[in-house]
Amino acid sequence: xxxxxxxxxxxxxxxxxxxxxxxxxxxxxxxxxxxxxxxxxxxxxxxxxxxxxxxxxxxxxxxxxxxxxxxxxxxxxxxxxxxxxxxxxxxxxxxxxxxxxxxxxxxxxxxxxxxxxxxxxxxxxxxxxxxxxxxxxxxxxxxxxxxxxxxxxxxxxxxxxxxxxxxxxxxxxxxxxxxxxxxxxxxxxxxxxxxxxxxxxxxxxxxxxxxxxxxxxxxxxxxxxxxxxxxxxxxxxxxxxxxxxxxxxxxxxxxxxxxxxxxxxxxxxxxxxxxxxxxxxxxxxxxxxxxxxxxxxxxxxxxxxxxxxxxxxxxxxxxxxxxxxxxxxxxxxxxxxxxxxxxxxxxxxxxxxxxxxxxxxxxxxxxxxxxxxxxxxxxxxxxxxxxxxxxxxxxxxxxxxxxxxxxxxxxxxxxxxxxxxxxxxxxxxxxxxxxxxxxxxxxxxxxxxxxxxxxxxxxxxxxxxxxxxxxxxxxxxxxxxxxxxxxxxxxxxxxxxxxxxxxxxxxxxxxxxxxxxxxxxxxxxx
Length: 526
Known about the structure:
Elements: H1 3-23, H2 26-36, H3 65-72, H4 74-82, H5 85-89, H6 98-101, H7 155-159, E1 177-178, E2 181-185, H8 205-208, H9 221-225, E3 243-244, E4 247-251, H10 255-258, H11 289-293, H12 323-326, H13 340-343, H14 357-361, H15 408-411, H16 425-428, E5 446-447, E6 450-454, H17 458-461, H18 493-497
Antiparallel strand pairs: 1-2, 3-4, 5-6
């Protein structure tokens, strides 16, 4: 603009201002001024409203400008109010001036909507980019001759040519697929007539839907698993009656409820074909144990065919026959672990001859019958030798003192027991310090606690009271000779003191007439 043009415009402005002041027409004056001070031409898109400034500007009211913009750009106004699209979701779009981003008066060729594709945040739109969309170029979705906001958002608008279903499943691709990967399918198969269970949940779609149309696929197990049928069709096509989708080896057939033969114990772990050598129903199997286990019968048929009366299905060696309840002979102690054939030499159905111990243990009797047939009087079923309960105190020879701790065979050289003598010397002859001088009845003086513990009252139990010097004498001083029967020693003084007689028999044998037992030198005066 030349200096002359600027001068003319300046004069015009001065004149307009003077006229406005004089004639009182402020609105007219303002418009004139604004037009005269315009900073430049508008862009091509705003060229039409350029002649009327108040289409975009409110005179001397800059804050009203956004409202005027939105009056024309109604789509943007709707987005701002609904908080959708870029202008509705950008943090400052609703409060910032439109001209902050869309500056005008820069000439007809100016680009008033500058757009940096590399820095644009697509999350501020109604279609955030996720998964596989993150790496796609803008031009793949946004046509060059269309507004960015008009780009379609439906999957099929971009992916119709790559639809493996050829449109057979409609256009709602997102009902099954996710943007991360086409192959990542989230289709809810439970809403169909064939909910996926067990291993079906991890199977690929095309494992069952080979044609990708997903229409009319068979739900019969055999149609997909014919090659997996270990029975080779012998058990029919109704696979689900026995198997579950979790695994072929998981059997759901309730043999107990659907047949008359419940599978328990070892029967529950064996393969169906072990018993069903034909089909499941032909031939009809018998339920008697012997019909399958005749070869396993260790009794060779001797005990009959009713195996279940003794054995169970867990193991042949597990015998469940209740001998205590079903017979008159309870198995206790060592009897409980004995094999049936140890006692039942003939079939178990034939009763044994008796229930006395000697009926089975006659050959084991170490007493050779000497103690009678009532073995249980002393012995128990746990062991012949352990915990023998014979009460010796009930015999003619109660065990006292050291006899209680003695072993049976210390006194009983044989197992017949009854022939053992009760005389002390029968066991203790070698221990007799008196060499038989006091007879065989050791118990008169000694007791079973110890040989050294003895007590004999010579004054009370004999006719010769020990007085004076006799009181300190040892028994052997008078009892010198062995005695096999009753112990008898003469009570005459001369029988022991003949060598001590100074009178050489002149005064006779009645020494006690003059002497006392205290001392020979002590004389009794008449």
